[in-house]
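To whoever is on call:

I kicked off a structure prediction for a single chain this morning and the downstream step that reads the tokens threw a length-mismatch warning. I double-checked the sequence; it's 329 residues and nothing unusual in it as far as I can see. Pasting both halves so you can look.
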Amino acid sequence: MIACGSNSEKKSKDFSITTNAVKNTISNNETLTLSIKNSKNHTVDSVVYKMNNSKIENNLDLSTAKLGSHAIEATVYFNGKNETVSTNVIILNSVAPKIYIFNILNKYPHDITSYTQGLEFYNGELYESTGQLGKSKLRKVDYKTGEVLENIDLANEYFGEGLTVLNDKIYQLTWQNNIGFVYDVNTFKKTSSFKYGKSKEGWGICNDGNVLYKSDGTERIWLLNPETLAEIDNIQTYTNKGKINNLNELEWINGKIYANRYQKNGVAIINPENGAIEGVIDFSSLKEKVKQHPTLDVLNGIAYNPDTNTIFVTGKHWDKLFEVEIVEK
């Protein structure tokens, strides 16, 4: 597991942290209890606890905590000295994800040559980002006819990934080049580029109207400042059993993040506050409803159209775009 904070302190022979987490794992409907094991019976003056470098009490209500792996640190003051010890705790969601299915409302043509990576509606227009070296594109598409209204071919060295549109700016990721591009949505001209931070790769991206959310193929989703493109925070996506990685294309829908999972024909519904996967949509049957051919690949591409209040999904090298409604199973 990857800790959010430092775990490089040399372990003290005199002290260690004891928790009520079973095998270092605890649910977010519990209270985390911390104490110090004092193997040499030193006279302890005080103890300061921190989680991810922020001070906490030794009894921590986890109901509002972010899920995932967290670094717990205790600085023990004794005999005019102090020692710092650390451990990790994994916080899980308290409930299992709900299972959702779908009803098809409409089918539209989709370019079968498009290795779809990102899909999003903005002001009634559908924008799409595609991948593969030498074949990556940024497009504006008439979703009802499949007609390409605008097109930019990326340079051959770039493997296109997700996209999102905010305040008339298109943000497009590339996979392993550690770079993203910004375009003017009205002119379709590239205006700038940006480097990634701790998120080494670009997979999917969406926005809530204020902040960008970026996936990198791990269990983490990074929050980006839309002006500076700096990574300002992150969440870890977990269920009641463990982490879910390979998060790919992202879409913001009614306060939740919807995420394709790479190589899976399903979509996770994620709470952006704590990373909890609250639901899973099973789209596996959709792949059987498109043209079967040698380069047919997995579901990828999810877009919410606020004009119709419906969701649109497609896949890599699919010849159809599906308009669907989601219902609980």
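Update from on-call: the warning came from a stale cache, not from the record. Cleared it. Sanity check on the structure: The longest strand covers residues 81-92.
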